[in-house]
Design a protein that fits this description.
Order of helices and strands: HHHEEHHEE
Helix content: 40-55%
Distance between the termini: 48 Å
CATH superfamily of the largest domain: Winged helix-like DNA-binding domain superfamily/Winged helix DNA-binding domain
CATH architecture of the largest domain: Orthogonal Bundle
Number of strands: 4
Strand content: 15-25%
CATH topology of the largest domain: Arc Repressor Mutant, subunit A
Largest sheet: 4 strands, antiparallel
Number of domains: 2
Length: about 110
């Protein structure tokens, strides 16, 4: 059963700033190390990373002449494919210039 919005908003406001029980506190070095180790053990499956990339990333369409050669889900995936930095891919997508003398990179499909 969902709580009505008004009580939830009031509780949220009460927990901000000095109303938060952890306000002015910090985690001890031991706790920080335990949290770090716990997060190191977590791995995100490749399929999930690809879904996140497709959702959050900017799709890159790679053309050779007028023909679509590749569709990549993000600038980082394109950078991995072309073995370069993602900033280089983003720069060529923005500029519309020929990449490596043969590829046109765009963020919109023709």
């Amino acid at each position: 059963m969902e709580e009505p919005e008004e009580p939830r908003r009031k509780i949220s406001e009460l927990m901000k700033g000095e109303g938060n029980p952890f306000y002015y506190n910090t985690h001890s070095p031991e706790v920080r190390e335990r949290l770090r180790l716990a997060n190191l053990a977590k791995t995100i499956p490749r399929e999930t990373r690809d879904k996140i990339s497709a959702t959050m990333g900017t799709a890159v369409f790679v053309y050779m002449g007028d023909a679509l050669a590749y569709t990549l889900t993000s600038t980082r995936q394109a950078a991995s494919h072309f073995n370069c930095d993602h900033k280089t891919i983003a720069r060529y997508v923005r500029s519309g210039k020929l990449f490596r003398n043969q590829w046109f990179l765009t963020s919109k499909q023709k």
